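Duplicate of #3305? Posting structure anyway:
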């Protein structure tokens, strides 16, 4: 799991045909810190099925606004350049994996 800028994510969205899970977070957000181990677990378990990346909403406000991020943390599931679904709040890794797998069918 790597932290990217909005511009870097846009490049990945354009060049990637697979699934990308974007964790939109803020350094001051408690639930955002709680979800980090869960996302690391998700990235390991779904290693070849999805790319998990992080985006600091404070450093990339325009990107977060463009994708209508309202609450933190927000997980955006992106496929072929489009947001196909989102989760807001802190979730356990099994819930995130179920979310991804339901949308990836």
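Output from current build:
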């Amino acid at each position: 799991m790597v932290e990217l800028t909005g511009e870097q994510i846009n490049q990945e969205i354009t060049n990637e045909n697979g699934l990308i899970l974007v964790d939109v977070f803020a350094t001051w957000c408690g639930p955002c810190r709680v979800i980090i181990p869960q996302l690391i677990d998700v990235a390991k378990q779904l290693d070849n099925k999805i790319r998990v990346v992080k985006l600091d909403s404070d450093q990339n406000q325009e990107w977060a606004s463009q994708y209508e991020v309202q609450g933190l943390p927000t997980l955006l599931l992106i496929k072929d350049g489009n947001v196909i679904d989102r989760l807001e709040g802190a979730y356990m890794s099994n819930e995130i994996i179920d979310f991804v797998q339901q949308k990836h069918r």
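Confirmed duplicate; merging threads. Residues 70 and 93 are 22 Å apart (CA to CA). The longest helix spans residues 93-104.
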